[in-house]
From TrEMBL:
<feature type="region of interest" description="Disordered">
    <location>
        <begin position="1"/>
        <end position="22"/>
    </location>
</feature>
<protein>
    <recommendedName>
        <fullName>IQ domain-containing protein K</fullName>
    </recommendedName>
</protein>
<dbReference type="Pfam" id="PF00612">
    <property type="entry name" value="IQ"/>
</dbReference>
<dbReference type="InterPro" id="IPR000048">
    <property type="entry name" value="IQ_motif_EF-hand-BS"/>
</dbReference>
<dbReference type="InterPro" id="IPR043408">
    <property type="entry name" value="IQCK"/>
</dbReference>
Length: 246
């Protein structure tokens, strides 16, 4: 009787958000039914099919908490109200960066790093980070402009005009080929090198070089031979006919 009267006098006051909280069966603290551990806590009886007392450490948890789940009451603090943006023309440089530059550039940098990791830019240097940051992130995903998600660089009007006077050089093969195409070319070159370095192929190449060196002046040798055999102008007898007549 004394405990019941004392608990009625010391019962906590009701909070303003009790009606707005989630639907729960809340039971006030009663010293005749609960231990002081339950005071000020939201609890619920948990039904399990194993012995919970075997896993309870008395040095950490009170034995009266066995079979109950506890949770704290949600906080009632309201989020701070957003302040109006400072004027662009009169605010200090630091405030300007924090309100007008960093909210756009920081997510763009984060997206650039994620894309660089996906493109494996540290293994193969064909990822243009400043192009991705300026065009794909800041231009296509700019919240101040809509309808740019499918825009291509070569279709922008001022880009077309600039390319007329400054044609773009051909892209390197590292930017054109896919990984499969590049792997096929590298493997074919490597197989060709393995064949060319064999002793039989090297011997054949050596013979071909010597043969080309020997036959380098074959045309002049043939011309010299026929000039020595042909008679001079005005002489109708050839050296061979004179030898036969003798």
């Amino acid at each position: 009787m004394i405990c019941g009267t004392t608990s009625a006098k010391s019962r906590r006051p009701s909070y303003d958000d009790d009606a707005a909280s989630v639907s729960t069966d809340y039971e006030d603290f009663d010293p005749a039914k609960h231990t002081p551990v339950f005071y000020g806590q939201m609890h619920a009886k948990v039904t399990v099919d194993f012995d919970v007392a075997a896993e309870v450490d008395p040095a950490i948890s009170h034995p009266s908490c066995i079979g109950y789940a506890f949770c704290q009451k949600p906080s009632t603090t309201k989020p701070p109200q957003s302040q109006p943006a400072p004027p662009k023309d009169t605010c200090p440089p630091r405030v300007y960066l924090e309100h007008y530059v960093f909210p756009y550039i920081l997510p763009a940098l984060e997206e650039t790093l994620k894309t660089a990791k996906e493109e494996r830019c540290f293994q193969a240097r064909y990822f243009c980070s400043y192009f991705f940051l300026s065009f794909d992130t800041m231009c296509r995903k700019n919240p101040n402009f809509t309808g740019r998600e499918e825009t291509k660089l070569m279709e922008i009007p001022f880009v077309k005009e600039w390319l007329k006077d400054n044609p773009r050089p051909p892209l390197p093969l590292s930017l054109v080929w896919t990984e499969d195409e590049a792997a096929l070319v590298i493997q074919s070159r490597w197989r060709g090198y393995q064949v060319r370095k064999t002793p039989e192929v090297q011997e054949l190449w050596q013979w071909q070089r010597e043969w080309r060196e020997i036959n380098r002046n074959i045309q002049s040798c043939v011309n010299d031979f026929w000039e020595s055999k042909m008679p001079e102008k005005g002489d109708t007898t050839s050296p061979e006919l004179e030898e036969k007549s003798e």
